Give the backbone structure.
Amino acid sequence: MVEWSEQERSIITSIFSNLDYNDVGPKALSRCLIVYPWTQRYFANFGNLYNAEAIKTNPNIQAHGTKVLHGLDRAVKNMDNIKATYAELSVLHSEKLHVDPDNFKLLADCLTIVIAAKMGSGFTPQIQATFQKFLAVVVSALGKQYH
């Protein structure tokens, strides 16, 4: 089990309370699909993904990016039991969708970049360390079914 200090909990809650989910989620997912084009194979039914502009303006990508970010709310609200919180999603992604678990880390990295850009100088090393710890726990929970 992961131990969270009150300061870490406060940082994570603060980050998510200040996010524009309809902006950050789509930007993070779009960045992932553009930077790591092999991840597009999981979104074949989302329509036109032929170039960066098509990905960034694709309404299905935008909606799914927002959905992913809202999915992280579950982890924020259940920081003491993230693995159990994501058990069902882990099964879905591994057994039905067959998503390579390494892609969760790629998306987490893209989300970190987008949030760092939004926060600017407010994204201090301490905030980054806490945010990346949080995402590492989420990525591990999503990949649990694969182990």
Summary: The chain has a mean pLDDT of 89. The helical segments are 6-17, 21-35, 52-57, 59-77, 82-85, 87-96, 102-119, 125-142.
